Amino acid sequence: MNEPNRAIPMPESVSLALADMERSLRVSTQIDAIADTPLRDLYAAGLGWMQRFIMQPHADLGRKGAVCPFAKPAHEERALLFCSFDAADMPFETYIDTLMRLPRLFERLAKERSEPSELLSLAVFPIGLQAGAHYKFIDCAHAILKPFFMECGLMLGEFHPASTVRGAHSDTFRPMRADVPLFVIRAMALHDILFIDGESTSTVMRVHELECYLRWNAGRLSAAEAQRIADRLAQRKSQLVGDEIALPA
Fold first, then answer.
1. What pTM does this model have?
2. Whole-angstrom Cα distance, residue 26 to residue 209?
3. Is the pLDDT of residue 29 over 90?
4. Which residue, of 66, 82, 113, 249, has the greatest Cβ tally within 10 A?
5. Residue 11 contacts by C-beta under 8 Å, 6 or more apart in sequence?
6. For residue 14, is pLDDT > 80?
7. Do 61 and 67 touch, CB atoms closer than 8 A?
8. DSSP per residue over 221-235, as a string?
9. How many helices and strands, by DSSP H and E, does the chain display?
10. Which residues are within 8 A (CB) of 171 and not within 5 positions of it... i.e. 6 or more apart?
C-alpha cells in the first residue's frame, strides 16, 4: 500500500490518539471479554446495530441480500476489528491528522493476520463527539479523507444517527444511519464502483475515484469491464477539460 503521508511528523496529540486505538483494538467476536465497561458497552452497541441492520436485508434497500453483504462474513471470520479513541474536545485539524494515519494501521493489521482475509474491516469509534457536531466530524471528515483513503486502496464508510446519505439503489433508504458514530475501513473491492463517480460529485473527484478504482482493481477486472471503466474515465477527463475551457477569462 502506497501511503503518501509516511514522512509527516506526528504531533503528540495524534500519537496519544493512535495509542488509544491500539489499546482498545478488539476482534468483534471478543467484545464480551472487555473489562472496561464503557468500552464494552460502546462496542456492543456498534455490533448490535450491525447485526440488527447492516447484516440483514431491508425492505427499502432496493436489492436482494443484506444491507452490507460482507459484514456478517467478516464478523464470523474474525476479520471485523473494533477500535476507539477519545475525540472529545479534539480540534478538528488534530482529528483529521489522526484519521489520516489509519491506512498505515490498517496495512499493519492486514500483514499481522495469521490468516489473511479480503474481508478485513476496521470499525473506528470516535468517543465523545457531540450529536450536533456529527455533520462536521463524520460527514465533512469523510469528504476530506475519502480521496486519500482511495489513493491507498481503501474505502471509508461514515456512519452516525442523523446521516442523510442515500442508498445506491434507493433514494429513500439511509444505509449510513447508525446508533453510534463510527467509520469503517476496508480494502477496495470490485463492487465499489457503485459508490464512486456519483452525479453529485465534482468532475475532478470523479476522475480521481475512477483512477484509484482502476489502479487497485486492475488484476481483478475482466478485460471488458476494465475497458468500460477506462472509457468512463476518459469521458470524465474530457468533461474536465470542457469545464476548464468554459471558465470565464
1. 0.90
2. 31
3. yes
4. 82
5. 94, 97
6. yes
7. yes
8. S-HHHHHHHHHHHHH
9. 9, 5
10. none
* pLDDT, average across residues 79-103: 97
CA distances to 10, 51, 164 from 7, rounded to whole Å, are: 9, 39, 36
- Copy the grid coordinates of residue 81: 476489528
CB 153 within 8 A of CB 102: no
Q: In what order do the strands lie in the sheet with 80-86?
A: 26-27, 80-86, 121-127, 182-187, 154-159
Treating both helix axes as pointing N-terminal to C-terminal, what angle do 12-24 and 92-100 enclose, rounded to 10 degrees? 60
CA trace torsion 37, 39, 43, 48 (10° rounding) = 30
Amino acid at 240: L
Query: Is the pLDDT score of 24 beyond 90?
Result: yes
Residues pairing with 121 in the sheet = 80, 186
Residue 223 has pLDDT above 60, yes or no: yes
- 173 Cβ neighbours under 8 A, 6+ residues apart: 58, 60, 61, 62, 166, 167
